[in-house]
Amino acid sequence: RAYPRRRAADTHPARPTRTHPNPPASPRASEQVTQWLVELLKELFMFRTFSSEQLLDLVAMMSKNEVKAGTELIVQGDLGSKFYVVHFGGFDVLVQKAASEPARRVAHFGPASWFGEPALLYGSKRGATVKATKDSVVWALDREQYKWVLMAENRKVRAMGRVSDAGRLTL
Q: Of 4, 119, 131, 170, which alpha carbon lies 20 to 30 A from 145's?
């Protein structure tokens, strides 16, 4: 009895592309806003080693969110997964030390501010509540998208390493 020949499984990682497999459904940033976001991200310690291409990839994945006044964008104690950049509007940062105490305002974020970076790195619980003080617009980056850009760069570096190793082979 003849059996069909088995095919080998592809053992090579997928090649990273410039587009994320799940791009945000919200409107993309204009070229001017994209450049503004890239320049802002460069100021953050966690993005200083990123290449221009990586920063553009991150910005391309960011989603634009309109937030109504009074909305709690982040709630203290919730598991964090997003990083935010304030485009327009303002947000109060409220910390509640104990359940029996009222939340206390400890900071305010306005345009060109950012918050939530620990969520990208650790996915930890939020240490404060962030509440919109007026109608606002933020750009959000999800932890999975952030990790995807890092992994894409790692795959690219490994692939370049295989190519350079091949060039050193001697016969």
A: 131
